[in-house]
Write a structure and sequence with these properties.
Layout: H1 2-47, H2 52-66, E1 68-86, E2 89-106, E3 115-118, E4 123-127, E5 131-133, E6 137-138, E7 144-148, H3 150-155, H4 158-178, H5 181-205, E8 211-215, H6 217-220, H7 225-230, E9 232-233, H8 234-241
Helix pairs in contact: 2-5, 2-8
Length: 242
């Protein structure tokens, strides 16, 4: 009995030692595997993380989904006068027509060829479609009219003709004001800032050191041809990669 007890006690000690050895071995292997995983994760982020091209592609897709970008809005006032002479009588009316104009960029026209990455200068260039001044939204409630020559207007349809001429002339004047160089430049600058942020923020979040330049078709011709030859659009870069 005592010998049996001694034998059992020795067996238990041997089994306990094996268990401790196995646990220690598992911990060592887990530590080694964890180290390899951490190293692999670091290398993956360092060498195989998101590139400027892939980030730009995602940003471009996000912009396209917005369809149209309202960059700027302005209020204009048109003052026009029309005159008619009939039967030796003269009538004239003056119309004051206020209206609001929105400036938009059709982001649906963007494609991957509009985004170019220059690895030498680390610059991402985006070519936007032209800014469009939308048709004026006339503020009907605040239209004011002043007239002279009531006799002619009472005897003929001169007043209706004057009103029609004034409405057309006033709307044309609102469009002319909206397309002046100053508001168009302000609308382009607003669009430029918005699109620059849309690309620059994801690039910074991905840890990519890059600058973003947004141009319009009429601005691209003034750029250096050498720079454009060095650049590659995102579509070509991704096609070569895959």
């Amino acid at each position: 009995m005592e010998e049996g007890g001694v034998t059992e006690e020795r067996g238990g000690g041997f089994a306990g030692g094996c268990a401790k050895f196995l646990i220690l071995a598992v911990l060592v292997v887990a530590a080694i595997l964890g180290g390899f995983w951490l190293l692999g994760d670091t290398l993956s982020k360092r060498f195989f993380g998101p590139t400027a091209e892939t980030v730009a592609q995602s940003s471009l897709q996000g912009l396209r989904e917005q369809n149209r970008l309202v960059t700027f809005s302005a209020r204009y006032v048109a003052v026009v006068t029309s005159k008619q002479t009939r039967l030796g009588l003269t009538a004239q009316k003056t119309m004051i027509m206020p209206g609001n104009v929105r400036y938009e960029v059709d982001l649906g026209k963007l494609d991957q060829r509009a985004v170019e990455w220059n690895p030498a200068t680390r610059k991402l260039t985006v070519i936007l479609p032209p800014v469009e001044a939308m048709p004026p939204e006339v503020d009907i409630n605040n239209i004011r009219q002043y007239g002279e020559g009531g006799i002619l207007m009472a005897l003929t349809d001169a007043e209706a003709k004057l009103d029609e001429a004034n409405r057309k002339a006033a709307q044309d004047e609102l469009v002319r004001q909206a397309r002046e160089p100053v508001p168009m430049r302000m609308a382009k600058d607003a669009a430029r800032r918005a699109v620059e942020r849309s690309f620059a923020m994801p690039l910074r979040a991905a840890g990519i050191d890059a600058t973003v330049e947004v141009l319009f078709p009429d601005e691209r011709s003034g750029k250096s041809t050498e720079q454009w030859d060095m650049s590659r659009n995102v579509q070509d870069v991704l096609a070569n990669r895959w």
